[in-house]
Write a structure and sequence with these properties.
CATH superfamily of chain C: HUPs
Mean pLDDT of chain C: 91
Largest interface: A-C, 103 and 102 residues
Low-confidence stretches of chain B: none
Structural class of chain B: alpha+beta
CATH topology of the largest domain in chain B: Uridine Diphospho-n-acetylenolpyruvylglucosamine Reductase, domain 3
CATH class of chain C: Alpha Beta
Strand content of chain B: 15-25%
CATH architecture of chain C: 3-Layer(aba) Sandwich
CATH class of the largest domain in chain B: Alpha Beta
Distance between the termini of chain B: 12 Å
CATH architecture of the largest domain in chain B: 2-Layer Sandwich
Helix content of chain B: 25-40%
Order of helices and strands of chain C: EEEEEHEHEHEHEEEEHEEEH
Radius of gyration of chain C: 22 Å
Number of strands of chain B: 18
Structural class of chain C: alpha/beta
Largest sheet of chain C: 9 strands, mixed
Largest sheet of chain B: 5 strands, antiparallel
Distance between the termini of chain C: 49 Å
Chains: A alpha/beta (396), B alpha+beta (465), C alpha/beta (262)
Shape of chain B: globular
Mean pLDDT of chain B: 93
Shape of chain C: globular
Oligomer: heterotrimer
Radius of gyration of chain B: 23 Å
Number of helices of chain C: 6
Helix content of chain C: 25-40%
Strand order of the largest sheet of chain B: 5-6-10-8-9
Chain lengths: 396, 465, 262
């Protein structure tokens, strides 16, 4: 039991102490200092108040036996057997963590008709793949998936479980964490492991304005989710290694109050406001037919096409694709501007993009003041070859 | 008018002043320099110089004055009446790179800037110091020099006034190249004619502003907007004089109609918090505490409900403000996107005549069978009315446009209004200005122009000429 | 139909800094507001009520001042509000928060449908919804982007999956978390503010719960510990490259690969 105890006699200036609390959680009730429900347990009053005035006391808690929990497990994220690439990235991370503490790497793969797909995982350096193949696991439904997860954890007792922060992972992992009353840290960007097998988890909060380092010191398993494209996937090895273990679970544990009516491929959403990648064209494009290379570049990157005002006025694109302060402002993860000089009306509409690559002939163009990666060159000489390059990389 | 054409020697001179990197001529001139935001008036300059200092401006002016070459100053080119279009060609002086913030004087609460600093940069800079530059025209990428030259007003004019009220002093290059300082950091000034106030709103015809001392206020800590639905535009706008009479002064009172909201939703691909009503008032209150603002807006909210408002919606967080104001900010572009071409009318009428005027534009819409869209500053009587071409052929369009414009300006005059609230006269609105003012007034203006610019080389053919 | 929406009071801006001396978040002069994502949840609840009738309640955990977000919910049209407030809830992580809310929900109502926002803007974890569902033993669907049908004993929703969209029918009682933009949230109404000025906010403390063991709540009931907080590294890296087209496009390709766009 941890709590704050107030020693009234050690308080010299009650109001000075109250001022220390950033949350307004201390009150002066007729000369008695009281802590109210606004307290966040930040312990600033303990550290900065008069010695002994507020003390933090912690009772002995039962320590978990960490040696009984072994292995780094990865949940295999998939829809109808198609394994989401975040899974391989997590296997890579799991291997790295496991090697530090000499643990095995496990995969948990549940679904229907997935047996042959499990083989693929053996090419990425896992020790054991636990496969639960059952018709009732065909679609993602929360109760049976949680039940299988529970069965796996009880059977294997992994120290750490990594789950991809996909829409499935973000729904499933908290459910499992609550079932085991354990900690789950979402969207970790850095993971490390201490000698005592405590997982060190670093994640952004407050929309990325703050980073927090979080541990789960006295609970097992330790759970974390990680977004796609944060960790690096290992190279696929030609030789398979490790083994597949087929598991079963009583069907009555797979009941669900959810009935999946249909699963359909997501329609690609067209629009620049929410796009993650944008290829933007400007006056550097000499004629309408040359837009073809812009569209092709966008296509190979899975990007949306946007433009500056002159191209709208030329009637080459719909005005909904114009970026500008008074029009649509965008903040994609990546924007590649092609032949855009960077008038302020344009840059003010996109300068919050996470990464800006600008291609322009004129090295004095203002766009280079906002670009992270400024390419001084002719779009006509660069883009066609760039498209070929990207195609090659994607095929490899 | 007989001006000298820019020739090779002139270019050489310009290069000798500014270096070859910042002087453009012939085919190297970017097409943007031939027009402003609305684009109805076009003419390429013969040379463009991107200046960096008062000294450069002074040298170029002196040279142009001696050689009888017309000069047109320009900022971001976001004007709407062709004031920065070089209708006689000549030299264009682009001041947008003179964009340094020179001094923040917290003891006198002034900010000294070069003319090319953008409105949005000023807002951001002073807010970081807990200070406030109140003029808030919708076009945030306009330069302060441009704002000073049109005496722009913006949304907050209801409570805080217009740009002229926030210009303390100017450094000006006269047409003959001489540099003068007008006004200063002083709060009061009764020292003769106020040249400063003449320069403000002169649309680059009397001198070129190369430095400005702006007046600042402490930054109000909070702002809350009210979005108030009404059954129709008339009942919305008729409520405005009652709000003003209540003496709880909002910083802004805007009106908007569903058509503009729907166009903005479509254009931005974002939903507005409410579009179920035909017309809305949008009010903003600022102050230093939630309690202070609440007290002010509650009084107004009650007035609106008494006057038939369907409800009063409160926008008090960043997300809500963005949902509303991003749409408000996109009206112009959104309306533009629904048509092929458009022209605008920026009349200002006494505040209790706004409803009457807007009603009149609806009648014109029917009478001439043409689409007219309006939104604007109900609180200061400044209306932004857009006449849309849609699929009219060139000839019909011009005919109808002229007829509609004439009707609107005539009506504004009958209601004791003025031709322009904040966009200026420039080139496009000259005929309407002439009609609305009597000859003596125009003659006075011409005399002032002559006193500043006897050779008529600075931005000729604008405003009163 | 009984609908319950879980809401939270969060700082008015996410632009917070870490105090380098104390390692505590600086919150001076930071206003608070309702978590913006919760507005979508409230809006969803109100739309369902408009269609099917019933009551919409909100529940929140926080200090006494958090009652202002309940008042705000009233101004949007919510019928009822519950505030769980106790000093012993201090220092709760996701798990303890979820447990406290689930205890509160058990205490006060028996909702057919619980709606949560996608996530909060301070913690960004998106975990509280699913964990409440687990503690209540009811099914949940996260990332709901459309409500397709509201039936007498179930709801049909469209759920966002990594590459697909799943349409699912869930029996009540259940919990859903809704995506941003499922509906445009309405603004608080001044008329409703006048109407609900005297409406009470129900307050509960640990003493009111079924599980009164202090160990389950607050810091004690939180398995995760924050070891430190620190500002993120900023990427101010800017580079200009010149060269022949071949070189340049190869460099862009390498960069795109490095940034994981290809």
């Amino acid at each position: 039991m941890a709590k704050l105890i107030v020693n009234q006699e050690k308080i010299t200036d009650i109001d000075a102490l109250i001022k220390i609390c950033p949350f307004g959680a201390m009150e002066n009730k007729n000369g008695i200092l009281e802590i109210n429900a606004s307290c966040r347990m930040c312990k600033l009053c303990v550290r900065r108040g008069p010695e002994g005035a507020v003390v933090y006391v912690e009772d002995e808690v039962v320590k978990v036996d960490k040696s009984k929990w072994k292995g780094i497990a990865v949940y295999v994220d998939h829809v109808e057997g198609d394994i989401h690439p975040v899974t391989f990235e997590l296997i890579g991370k799991a291997r790295e963590l496991a090697d530090k503490v000499n643990h095995p790497v496990y995969c948990l793969f549940m679904g229907h008709d997935i047996g042959h797909r499990a083989e693929e995982l053996l090419h990425y350096g896992v020790d054991e793949v636990f496969v639960y193949d059952n018709e009732m696991l065909k679609d993602f439904r929360i109760e049976p998936y949680t039940a299988v997860f529970e069965d796996f954890v009880n059977r294997v007792k992994p120290s750490v479980i990594l789950v991809g922060a996909t829409t499935i992972g973000r729904s499933l992992a908290p459910r499992v964490a609550a079932r085991f009353k354990t900690g789950l840290t979402a969207d970790c960007t850095v993971l490390d492991i201490k000698e005592n097998t405590d997982l060190v988890q670093i994640r952004p909060a407050f929309g990325g304005n703050i980073m927090a380092q979080i541990v789960t010191p006295n609970n097992r398993p330790q759970m974390a989710t990680v977004r796609y494209k944060v960790m690096t996937a290992p190279e696929r090895k030609a030789e398979a290694s490790g083994r597949i273990i087929h598991c079963s679970i009583e069907e009555n544990r797979l009941k669900s109050n959810i009935n999946v009516l249909s699963v359909t491929k997501k329609q690609k959403e067209h629009g620049i406001s929410e796009a993650e990648i944008i290829v933007a064209a400007g006056r550097g494009i000499k004629s309408e037919k040359d837009m073809a290379m812009i569209y092709e570049l966008a296509d190979v990157l899975g990007a949306e096409v946007a433009c500056t005002r002159p191209l709208i006025e030329a009637g080459w694109l719909d005005s909904k694709r114009q970026i500008g302060l008074s029009g649509r402002t965008v903040r994609p993860k990546l924007i590649i501007t092609c032949g855009i000089s960077g008038a302020v009306q344009f840059t003010a509409g996109m300068n919050n993009s996470e990464y800006i690559i600008a291609i322009n002939k004129d090295e004095k163009a203002p766009i280079f003041k906002v670009a992270h990666y400024g390419i001084v060159g002719d779009i006509y000489e660069i883009i066609p070859g760039l498209i070929e390059n990207i195609k090659r990389v994607k095929e490899a | 008018m007989n001006y000298k054409k820019v020739d090779f020697n002139d270019i050489e001179y310009l290069i000798s002043v500014c270096g070859s990197d910042r002087v453009f001529y012939g085919e190297n001139i970017n097409e943007d320099y031939s027009h402003d935001e609305l684009g109805g008036v076009k003419r390429m300059p013969e040379a463009v110089v991107q200046v960096l200092s008062t000294e450069e401006v002074s040298k170029i002016m002196k040279y142009a004055y001696e050689n009888n070459i017309p000069v047109t100053p320009r900022g971001s080119g976001t004007g709407l009446v062709g004031a920065s279009v070089p209708i006689y060609g000549g030299i264009m002086i682009d001041l947008s790179n003179m964009n340094r913030i020179l001094e923040l004087d917290e003891e006198n609460l002034t900010l000294t800037v070069e003319p090319g600093v953008l409105l949005m940069e000023i807002a951001k800079f002073v807010e970081e110091h807990d200070l406030f530059y109140p003029p808030d025209p919708g076009e945030k990428t306009a330069t302060i020099g441009g704002n000073i030259n049109t005496n722009a007003g913006g949304m907050r004019a209801v409570k805080y006034g217009v740009t002229r009220d926030y210009v303390r002093g100017l450094e000006v290059v006269l047409p003959n190249g001489e540099v003068i300082q007008v006004g200063g950091k002083v709060v009061k000034n009764s020292s003769g004619y106020s040249i400063k106030d003449l320069i403000v709103g002169s649309e680059g015809t009397l001198g070129i502003v190369t430095k400005a001392i702006l007046r600042l206020l402490p930054l109000p800590k909070k702002a809350v907007s009210l979005l108030i639905p009404f059954k129709d535009l008339e009942s919305a706008i008729e409520t405005v004089p009652k709000i003003i009479k209540s003496k709880s002064i909002p910083t802004a009172i805007e009106f908007m109609q569903r058509a503009a909201i729907v166009a903005a939703e479509e254009y931005l691909g974002k939903k507005f918090p409410d579009n179920s009503s035909d017309a809305y008032l949008l009010l903003t209150f600022d102050g230093n505490s939630r309690e202070e603002i609440e007290a002010a807006y509650e009084r107004v909210a009650h007035i609106c409900l008494e006057e038939g408002a369907l409800d009063v919606y409160i926008s008090d967080t960043q997300e809500r403000q963005e949902a509303i104001w991003s749409a408000r900010g996109a009206f112009l572009e959104a309306i533009k996107a629904t048509t092929t071409e458009m022209d605008e009318c920026d009349v200002v009428v006494p505040r209790n005549k706004v409803a009457e005027f807007v009603k009149f534009t609806h009648e014109l819409e029917d009478k001439f069978n043409i689409r007219i869209r309006s939104f604007g500053h109900a609180g200061d009587g400044n209306l932004h009315i857009y006449v849309l071409r849609d699929d009219l052929d060139e000839e019909t369009w011009h005919k109808k446009l002229n007829d509609v414009m004439k009707c609107m300006y005539d009506r504004a005059r009958e209601l004791s209004g003025q031709v322009s609230g904040e966009h200026g006269i420039g080139f496009a609105k000259k005929p309407y200005l002439k009609e609305s003012l009597n000859e003596e007034y125009i003659n006075l203006m011409r005399g002032i122009k002559m006193a500043f610019d006897p050779k008529n080389i600075l931005n000729p053919g604008k405003v009163c000429q | 139909m009984e609908i319950l929406v879980c809401i939270k009071q969060v700082p008015g801006t996410t632009k917070v800094e870490v105090d380098p001396v104390t390692g505590v978040l600086k919150r001076d002069g930071v206003d608070s507001k309702m978590n913006p994502y919760d507005l979508y949840a409230i809006e969803t609840a109100l739309r369902i009520r408009e269609q099917r009738g019933g009551r919409v309640s909100v529940i929140t955990m926080g200090p006494p001042q958090a009652s202002v977000v309940i008042k705000e919910a009233y101004m949007m049209g919510v019928d009822d509000g519950i505030l769980l407030s106790d000093r012993r809830f201090a220092g709760s992580d996701v798990l303890a928060t979820s447990y406290t809310l689930s205890q509160g929900i058990k205490k006060v109502s028996n909702p057919d449908l619980i709606i949560c926002g996608k996530q909060t803007t301070d913690g960004d974890t998106a975990q509280v919804g699913p964990e409440i569902a687990e503690y209540l033993g009811i099914p949940h669907v996260a990332n709901v982007r459309k409500i397709l049908e509201i039936k007498d004993s179930s709801i049909v929703v469209e759920m966002d999956m990594p590459e697909t969209v799943e349409i699912a029918e869930i029996k009540y009682p259940c919990l859903i978390t809704v995506e941003k933009d499922i509906f445009q949230p309405r603004l608080p109404s001044f008329k409703k503010k006048l109407e609900t000025r005297d409406r009470e906010v129900k307050m509960f403390t640990l003493q009111d719960f079924e599980d009164r063991d202090e160990k389950s709540y607050g810091l004690n009931g939180s398995p995760t510990k924050v070891e430190r907080i620190f500002p993120p590294e900023v990427n101010n890296d800017r580079r200009m490259l010149k060269g022949n087209p071949e070189e340049l496009r190869n460099k862009i390709t390498v960069k795109l690969k490095e940034l994981r766009f290809i």
